[in-house]
Amino acid sequence: MLRDITLGQYYQTESPIHRLDPRVKLVGTIVFIISLFCMKNLLGYVCAAVFLAMCIRISKVPFKFMTKGMKSIIMLLMITVVFNLFLTPGTPLVSFWKLTITREGLRLASFMAIRLVMLIIGSSVMTLTTTPNNLTDGMEKLLNPLKKIKVPVHEVAMMMSIALRFIPILLEETDKIMKAQMARGADFESGNLIKKAKALVPVLVPLFISAFRRANDLAMAMEARCYRGGEHRTKMKPLVYKKADYIAYLILLFYFAGGICIGRLTFGI
User: What is the pTM of this model?
Assistant: First the structure.
């Protein structure tokens, strides 16, 4: 299960999306997420699904690799669907015991499930096609205007990038610790919820110790190299927009305008 989480991982391959400026991918991901919450009918979500499928196809990242990350949110997805399905008032469709499924609840639950799935896969396209260093540079460039109000833009971008990069490292460390504990006779599967929680204590303690040790090693390494971020720091590979980036922005604009118009049609499903 832990190895199925793709957040923070980078998939090395050659594709037009890999070569795009990280700012384009960050803006594109934000625009795509906003569009998902602006759409009000099935036609809009079909439009978003087609756009997402095209991006995945162009990125050359295997679709199975992206969908692996969905296994980790199945429980969240089920809770979201169930809550919207039974707690939304409206026209009753099915009733049993004290629970009622309404037409509006069914529609809202379906849309929320579609939004969540496409949101996770859409975000995975960005992280799988962008290295952590490029992601940091892109965030810093986009947040540059906040420097005028004394926001430490470089530090914020660096912290977000390090946190994202540490996710697969900590997951791998957790997997190793769990296998070591299981080899010593630990049981993480049997018992009720309380017993399973108690069984995780021998995993969490060494995991926290390992995380703090890694953080300390990283801080010492940065200090030993006299790392100073922020002003007057040059880039080995400065970000420069190319023709493909402007074309990507134009495609993104057409998608957003067309998707919102189609997704908010009154005669849509």
Answer: 0.77
